[in-house]
Amino acid sequence: MISVSVYTTEPLSSIALELLFRQCEQIALLPVVSDLSNLLQQVSSQKPDVLLLTVNSHFDRNLWTALRRQSDDTKIILWLHEITPELAYQAIECGIRGILRKNLPPEMIVKCVQKVHAGELWFDQTLTQAFLSGRSITVSPREGELIMLVAQGLKNREIAKAMSITEGTVKVYLSRLFEKLGVRDRVELVLVGLRNLQGTVEQGAPALSDRRRSEATSKSRASAERKKNRSQSTRFFVAGPSIQ
Description:
It is a single chain. The protein is α/β, with parallel strands linked by helices. The protein folds into 2 domains: 2-132, Response regulator (Rossmann fold); 135-243, Orthogonal Bundle (Arc Repressor Mutant, subunit A). It contains 11 helices and 7 strands. It has helices spanning 11-22, 36-46, 61-70, 85-93, 106-117, 125-133, 141-151, 156-163, 167-181, 186-196, 210-227, and strands at 2-7, 27-29, 50-54, 75-80, 98-101, 135-139, 234-238. The strands form 2 sheets. A 5-stranded parallel β-sheet has the order 2-1-3-4-5, with helices on both faces. It has a two-stranded antiparallel ribbon with strand order 6-7. Helix 1 links the parallel strand 1 and strand 2. Helix 7 (141-151) packs across helix 10. The protein is elongated, with a radius of gyration of 20 Å.
């Protein structure tokens, strides 16, 4: 018997999934939850074998990490409409065991749960091809910080102040990052960063005013101090030309 927990904020999805899983003799469905605090409590107390997590437009890797802390043995499946190869790769890095498209028929949902419970990974052919054609690149904490500062709209002078380095050093770091990630300019660097750091930096943010830049610089300086003791690098996924 496979104990399954389901999180969704969509009433119709909740009803449909409950009807689907109740018909499967191999699955013991826990009460469907629509509140994150209740989800964390359920995972912590019930330790389900599999968690089907509905994902809309926001991807919260902190939530994935928190869920794994509550029950490391629970295998998490993301149930969603679309996901970029970069974010799918980051999901795998966070321990996600399956990515399931919402346009698949009901029997495929059950099959996915069974396969993931059995220890297999579940990804569709498009993502598999993307993983095979792309490449994984290790980004140091310092490089990740630089990418986030660029994504916030800071200029080289402001980045230098935030990172306690010279403006010339910022230019050298950026040049090395362009070559390392295979990008041509700051715009492409930000795109790669946003795809891999979604939920960490704000997407689609308007240009910063001078006041906001000053505030961002102060916050970034404080953040930089906290990050000095961090040694863990981040792995970026850069998709191949055929799927860009």
